[in-house]
Predict the 3D structure of the following.
Amino acid sequence: MKDDHTERIAALQSLQQPVAPDDSMAEAGRKVLLGELIVMLQREAGSRTGEDIEDVHIMRVSTRRMRSAFRVLRPYFKVKAVQPFMRDLRQTAAALGAVRDLDVLILDLQRFQATLDADGQSAMGEIIAQLDERRDAARSNLNALLNSKAYRRFLKRFSGFVTQPGEGAVALRQNTPRPYQVRHVLPLLIAERLASVRAYDPLLAGEPDVETLHALRIEFKRLRYTVSLFNSVLGKSIAEFITELKVIQDHLGRLNDIATARHRLDMLLDELDGVNMGMLNAYLDSLEAEAPALVAGFPEVWTRFNSRKVQERLSSALLALH
């Protein structure tokens, strides 16, 4: 292992502070980014080894949350100050994603394997072994990135950025009434994210297609990241609202997992023959059978999310900012 970051993590943790409603968006964002950087570093060692697939998952989520935070914070930081960090986070997320996608696919295939007879389990084991080789290659690429000088430079620069108040922030004009504090800006940001989700309502009449649901999944992810990044300054009911977001994201996420699996396994079909190809086709057929039920069941999940009861949880949480 190149570096376990123990000293860096301890130093960063000593500088953590909670987000306050009257923080500027730039400084609140800096606090949020600091917390996510710590999570990313804490999960790096496990992501390198692959002993627990949750390490890659959580490290990847932390990079995504930081990228989402930068999108939210775009008006409050100078472009040149944050653009390199966005690029480095995107590269790290891509390397983690290549491993994570295979983790999810292999785990799903192993569940399917358990339902087969002995011959079927053996054939599926060969398919899983091939995917495992691809995962090893993806992890080697990930470790090469994590061992690179570019990654170490990124960590050094980014650690400095998230711990230096005012670094890279757009200067505020004195005596100019511009909303810049968390309590002023966050309600509008969340409302905009929610509006982007609710805008899909006319498209969901009848039975929506998978492409529409995939696009909606991305909008839900952006809403959840925005809410979760700043949940410490929101009311207690935000935890229940985030739970509701997770339910609908899990539903849409399973559809996405199916699409991702189908794409990856289609590339394997040409490399297999005989029993193995038949077994892979059987698995793909099982996915095809699962997807319609998920699509058909989505309107019920959507209706619940849009209910007055669920939306009031968000409204109540926002009142804590006043």
